[in-house]
Design a protein that fits this description.
Radius of gyration: 23 Å
Number of helices: 5
Largest sheet: 3 strands, parallel
Shape: elongated
Strand content: 5-15%
Low-confidence stretches: none
Oligomer: single chain
Helix content: 40-55%
Strand order of the largest sheet: 3-4-5
Length: 150
């Protein structure tokens, strides 16, 4: 699918679909162990390349499935946090002590939020999130149920 883009050079559109599968087969054949992020991907490798299932390990990305029925409703979360019902919310969650997050908080306060006043509410969640002003910025800090907030 990636090789039908008319903006790609003709060489990539013609060679890509033939070359990439060959490279994948060669790589899988030479590897001691192949990792995937799911059992479904693992099964695809076994089927597509005939790889011994013992040479493929499914290692989840670290995310976890969430039971949607256990979450607080969107309306209840908005009401509890004092968010407008109809305005879109952009959520940023992270630890303030992480340097890239510090940069994001600064950009949000000084540029991004100001560009979206009246259009988007910004909700900042996380341990140590700095207090900052802005009519469309709400800092809530640490929350017990992050999944409901998200």
């Amino acid at each position: 699918r990636d090789y039908v883009d008319p903006e790609l050079p003709v060489s990539k559109r013609l060679l890509g679909p033939r070359l990439v599968p060959w490279i994948e087969r060669a790589t899988v054949a030479c590897a001691d162990l192949v990792t995937t992020v799911s059992e479904k991907d693992r099964a695809t490798f076994v089927e597509r390349y005939g790889v011994d299932p013992e040479r493929i390990a499914a290692i989840p990305t670290g995310t976890q499935a969430v039971d949607a029925s256990s979450l607080e409703s969107r309306a209840a979360v908005r009401e509890r946090l004092g968010l407008d019902v109809d305005t879109p919310v952009a959520v940023f969650h992270g630890l303030d002590a992480h340097p890239p997050n510090e940069e994001v908080f600064e950009l949000l306060a000084e540029e991004i939020a100001l560009a979206f006043v009246g259009e988007v509410q910004f909700l900042l969640v996380g341990k140590g999130v700095p207090e900052m002003g802005g009519e469309n910025v709400l800092v809530v800090g640490f929350v017990e149920d992050l999944f409901s907030v998200l």
